[in-house]
Each structure stands twice: as C-alpha cells, then as structure tokens.
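in:
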C-alpha cells in the first residue's frame, strides 16, 4: 500500500460513471485530495499494477455480482492492508456507517452524500497511519526473514559442533576381561560442557577420565575438547624398559593445570576433573580430582565408599598439588564417576519441604550396585526420563561406571548410553 490514489471499484465501467462519485469528490474538503482511479471487480482481482499507489478503496456493488465474488474481492483487498468503503445499493436510506470487517466500513449508497464523504475522509486520514504501519510490518517481515536465516545458520553450526564433539568421545569402550564399563552421556543442549574418556594405557592399566568445563554452550564444549587433547597419561622415557612411564593421576592433573594456565590470555577458563588409573592385575585404584564431585565406590557387600582426595579447580591456581588417593577394588565392586548435573536432575520433594534436595541423586546412585551393569544403567536412564522437568534438562549429565568382574562365568559387557539432545 502506498501513494495518494482513491480506487473506485464497480461491476462495470458504466457503473463507475455515476453522479454520486463526481458529487462526492466535488465536496471533498481534506487537504491534498486523492487522485481518483476506477477499476472493475475483474480488473481489481487480476495480478498487476491496479492496486499500486492505492491508499483507499471505494467498492460500489450494485447487486449484479455474486455475494461470493464480493467477499473474495474484500479478502483480496484486505491482504494489501487497504482501508475500504463499501456502499451497497440497498433500499435502506441513510443510517450510520457500520464496520463490517477489519478495515471495511459500510454505508448505504442511498445515504446522504455528507455521510459518504465523512466515511471516505475518515478512512483517508486513517490510511496514512495504515501506510506507516504497513511499512513497519514489511520491515519487520524482512528483519524476521533475516533472523530466521541467522537462526538456521546457527542451528546448522551447532549441529556440526555437536558432531565434532562426539568425535572426541571414545568410539568403543575397552574390552578387558577384568572390567566392564557403562556410560550415560546427556548434553543439556546441542553441545556439552562434559567430556569423558576410557583408555587402555598398556596391558596392565586402564585410565578413566571425566571433566566438566565451567559454563555452558559452545565455549564450554570447546574447553572440553581442549582438555581431552591436553590430558597426558604417559611420559616417554627411553631409559625405561617399555620406553614410557604411566603418569599417576595427581601428576596428570598437575600437568593439565599448567597447560591450561599457559594458554589463558587474561580471561580465566576453568574446569573440574577426576582421573583414575586401575591396575588390571591387582585391581588397585589410584585416583585424583580437581574440584570435581567425589566418586563413589559401590561395594559388592552393599556398602558405599566415597574417596575424597583434595584438589582445586583446573586453570585457576598455578603450581598446585593434587592429592592422590589409593584403594583396593574387589570382585563385584563398581566405581562411579559423574558430573554435577545430577545434583539438579531430581525435583523438589514434599519430604524436603518443597526444596530441591541436591543429595537425592546419591540414593539413585546407590541402586546401581544391584543387577547387571546393563540393568543398572537402564534403571538410571529411566529414572532420569521420569523425573519432572526431564525435557528441559538444567545441566549436562555424564556418568561413567567401571564394574569389576565377580569372577564367575559370563562377565559383564560394556554398556554405553550416549544421547545427543536435539
């Protein structure tokens, strides 16, 4: 819609030559009166320049057209956001103007000329505001189109980022007779601030690592990939029999901490982590943590042990030491390492006065000690799915279980439950 033209529409051009049109325009008193153009119903419905530069439409039906054609015309004009005066040729004389539809006002063709002029001039004045609103609407549509393109581009980039991050996760879990592994990996969005790794260090040792970059979204995901690549588990030494030495977890975290600090350029980026090394022959566990939730050892006899080695966040303090904890695993034990997303995974309960119980997950974890590893992981997954708010996960959640074989035939196989949020 634009311009300063009044378009008069009738069934035929002969109808448009009525004296009523000339009489109304002769009495027009609004400053800068419109330029009058005429068109038939058929011409107005055809695609083309008929409605260009039109600010106001005067429709003069005379009963020779079908009702369907009239409403089709009005709908066509409304799509262009044009104000419309409808003057049907009825037997009713006079009467106030009536609003039929949005932007459509009806006045009887037999009404006094003054009423028709008043309705036309009111609509003419309103057309200026409608032109302005129409322009703003068009600009908003263009802006919305640009935003949609940007959102689609961001969505595609996030999906590619998620795919890239997935490639940093273990493709296959180690297959060893002494241990079985279970993993649950649930990002809160496209990408995750959590990462894990389970690596066969040599014939006698397995390394298990989990980290949680502080923050969310792409920055946290990029940090996890850097941490994964920077974690050093072995030190080359030609003087040794095998040409290398397996780093203890405390040494590995200390080196990772130094590497993170050396890469920072003014802005602190930090993370929590937990790393352990298990001797497959002796089932001795060495563990260190950096501000990460304490792991849990679910004993075969039903008790629970929580090793609590001390250690600060990664990437904050230089030259810090990480405490090393050692313990002996037994057949049937299960080691659980997890991220802090589980603390917010379960809703408030009435038993806790309606407050969020950040320790509720511990009872859920204790149940992982029973059944096969596959059954335990399935129960954990189901419990998370059934929790209130599970469709709007608050934080990334990662859990890694290392199950020690109980020495009986048919030892447990590795189980992985990796889920990428859509």
């Amino acid at each position: 819609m634009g311009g300063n033209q009044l378009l008069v529409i009738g069934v035929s051009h002969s109808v448009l030559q009525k004296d009523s049109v000339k009489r109304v325009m002769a009495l027009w008193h609004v400053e800068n009166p419109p330029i009058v153009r005429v068109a038939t119903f058929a011409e107005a419905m055809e695609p083309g320049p008929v409605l260009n530069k039109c600010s106001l439409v005067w429709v003069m039906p005379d009963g020779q057209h079908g009702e369907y054609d009239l409403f089709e015309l009005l709908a066509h004009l409304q799509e262009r956001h044009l104000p419309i005066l409808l003057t049907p040729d009825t037997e009713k004389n006079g009467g106030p103007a009536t609003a039929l539809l949005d932007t459509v006002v009806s006045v009887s063709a037999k009404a006094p000329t003054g009423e028709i002029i008043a309705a036309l001039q009111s609509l003419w004045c309103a057309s200026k505001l409608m032109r302005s609103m129409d322009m703003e609407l068009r600009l908003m549509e263009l802006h919305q189109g640009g935003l949609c393109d940007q959102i689609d581009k961001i969505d595609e980039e996030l999906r590619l980022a998620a795919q890239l991050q997935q490639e940093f996760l273990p493709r296959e879990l180690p297959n060893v007779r002494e241990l079985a592994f279970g993993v649950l990996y649930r990002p809160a969005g496209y990408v995750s601030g959590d990462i894990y790794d389970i690596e066969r260090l040599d014939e006698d040792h397995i390394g298990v690592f989990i980290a949680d970059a502080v923050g969310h979204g792409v920055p946290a995901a990029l940090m996890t990939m850097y941490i994964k690549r920077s974690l050093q588990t072995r030190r080359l030494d030609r003087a040794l029999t095998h040409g290398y030495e397996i780093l203890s977890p405390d040494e590995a975290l200390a080196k990772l901490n130094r590497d993170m600090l050396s890469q920072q350029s003014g802005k602190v980026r930090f993370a929590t982590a937990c790393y352990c090394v298990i001797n497959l022959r002796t089932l001795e566990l060495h563990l260190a943590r950096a501000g990460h939730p304490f792991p849990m050892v679910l004993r075969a006899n039903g008790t629970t042990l929580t090793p609590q080695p001390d250690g600060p966040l990664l990437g904050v303090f230089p030259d810090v030491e990480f405490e090393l904890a050692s313990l002996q695993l037994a057949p049937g034990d299960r080691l659980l390492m997890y991220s802090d997303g589980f603390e917010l995974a379960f809703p408030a309960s009435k038993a806790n006065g309606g407050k969020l119980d950040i320790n509720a997950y511990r009872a859920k974890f204790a149940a992982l000690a029973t059944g096969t590893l596959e059954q335990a992981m399935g129960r954990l997954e189901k419990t998370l799915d059934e929790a209130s708010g599970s469709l709007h996960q608050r934080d990334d959640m990662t859990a890694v279980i290392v199950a020690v074989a109980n020495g009986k035939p048919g030892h447990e196989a590795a189980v992985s439950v990796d889920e990428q949020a859509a």
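note: The chain has a mean pLDDT of 83.
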